Amino acid sequence: MGNWQMEIGRMMSYILFPIGIYYYFNQSENIEEWIQNEKKKFNTLTQEEHNELVNFIEEYNKKREFRRITEMETQYNEVN
């Protein structure tokens, strides 16, 4: 066990550490460059790549819907 000064120091660190982290990460100039770099990672698609992605999603959804419809039809035919 430590003396009371050590306990006060520990309590101050428990209180001030979260406050310091909160203060640092809420300063926009500290993380502005990092945010810009992260945004650039997500905006790398060209228009052509974007169109290909949209077409792929539409085709996938059509196949999935067709599969669901055929499953529903087979269930309906089994009941009747």
Automatic annotation (TrEMBL):
What's its membrane topology? Single-pass membrane protein
* GO molecular-function terms, A-Z: unfolded protein binding
Q: Is the keyword Transport in the record?
A: no
The lineage is: Eukaryota, Metazoa, Ecdysozoa, Arthropoda, Hexapoda
Which protein, by its recorded name, is this?
Uncharacterized protein
Q: Give the GO biological process terms.
A: mitochondrial respiratory chain complex IV assembly
A GO term from the CC aspect: mitochondrial inner membrane
- Where located? Membrane; Mitochondrion membrane
**What organism is recorded for this protein?**
Melipona bicolor
Please give the superkingdom of this protein's source. Answer: Eukaryota
Q: Which UniProt keywords apply?
A: Membrane, Mitochondrion, Transit peptide, Transmembrane, Transmembrane helix
What family is this protein classified in? Answer: Belongs to the PET100 family.
Mind telling me which Pfam families this protein's record contains? Pet100 (PF09803)
